[in-house]
Write a structure and sequence with these properties.
It contains nine helices and seven strands; from the N terminus they run αβαβαβαβαβαβααβα. The protein is α/β, with parallel strands linked by helices and 328 residues long. Helix 6 runs parallel beside helix 9.
């Protein structure tokens, strides 16, 4: 009887359906627009951050260096976003600093390679900041910098803040989990030279045939990677990079400035926004296979797919309709 009633009433309900949906769509649109404006506001807030003082190296917060500075002070800036990474961060720092210090010592007197490592504590609730401070005291506050965000803003926001405060000719973004062999930065630098020293080089786990990369991913990561890749290609239109999410990317200074001054997304989809912006800005992009291993403690979750889809949709719509302006 209920089915019959619905069929009888359907001719009456159908014309009224659009009228009922209009208020719902209007409410959802207002909520979405509010969130989009909030992303802009947070990006502006992060631009006003200052260095968190490290015990033994500074008495008070000091103004941040800026990627807009005319002269780069170092050859390489390594930006490391870290959220509750007190257990994994030391392994990464030991590997990275051993490689960087060896390279610096080998070039002393003939080029003098210099570097800085910027650890951006993304509002951690554990001892991440203390770990970074320990390395700053050991290697000096000029070699290891610790920047602490006031609250957890997301990985994208942490990378953006560190990149905008970098002083290197090139900026390397590297995940704190140490999943990528750090010495593979050599591969990225070779690729950057092939681009003429300008652009973006993305580390990749996509088993490119031109390299001997070794990638070991569990079933969940493989499933998420392929599902995410479909969203990247068909929603964001990024088709020139097979693996957008590998946490190992090298930027020339100008490319880093243009991309991170415009980047708004704060969480998992921020990598895709970078490549979307690179396409819009006609920046050269190259993908290079790297050695990558599964590291315990991954924060990848199935529940993140819906959030990623929303962020990608927001990215495309906001830029396409001028809600977010691209500044050069």
């Amino acid at each position: 009887a209920m089915g019959v009633d619905v069929l009888v009433l359907w001719p009456v309900l159908w014309p009224a359906l659009p009228v009922m949906l209009v208020p719902l769509i209007a409410i959802l649109t207002r909520v979405w627009m509010s969130w989009v404006r909030q992303l802009d506001a947070v990006a502006a807030e992060l631009s006003d951050a200052s260095w968190d003082p490290v015990e033994g190296t500074s008495a008070s917060p000091t103004p941040l260096p800026s990627i807009r500075d005319a002269v780069a002070r170092h050859d390489l800036s390594v930006v490391v976003p870290a959220y509750n990474e007190e257990k994994r961060l030391p392994l990464f720092m030991d590997e990275a600093l051993a490689y960087l210090c060896k390279r610096r010592d080998e070039t002393r007197g003939r080029g003098d390679f210099t570097f800085e490592v910027i650890v951006v504590d993304d509002g951690s609730t554990d001892g991440t900041k203390d770990v970074a401070a320990r390395y700053a005291r050991k290697y000096s506050g000029d070699v290891v910098r610790c920047l602490q965000l006031r609250r957890n803003c997301g990985k994208g926001a942490a990378v953006r803040r560190g990149a905008l405060a970098s002083r290197g000719k090139f900026v390397l973004f590297a995940d704190a989990d140490g999943a990528t062999r750090f010495s593979d930065v050599d591969r990225l630098e070779d690729a950057m030279r092939s681009l003429g020293g300008e652009g973006v080089v993305a580390g990749s786990r996509a088993h490119l045939q031109s390299s001997a990369a070794v990638a070991r991913r569990n079933a969940l990561r493989n499933f998420l990677m392929h599902g995410f890749h479909a969203l990247v290609r068909f929603v964001a239109g990024v088709r020139n990079v097979k693996d957008t999410q590998c946490g190992f990317k090298l930027f020339s200074r100008d490319a880093a400035r243009m991309l991170f001054e415009n980047c708004r997304l704060r969480r998992w989809a921020f990598d895709v926004e970078l490549f979307y912006l690179a396409q819009r800005l006609s920046l050269p992009v190259k993908e290079v296979s790297v050695t990558w291993n599964e590291i315990p403690g991954s924060k990848v979750r199935m529940s993140g797919i819906a959030s990623i889809a929303l962020e990608l949709f927001t990215c495309v719509v906001a830029y396409s309709f001028g809600i977010w302006q691209i500044h050069v």
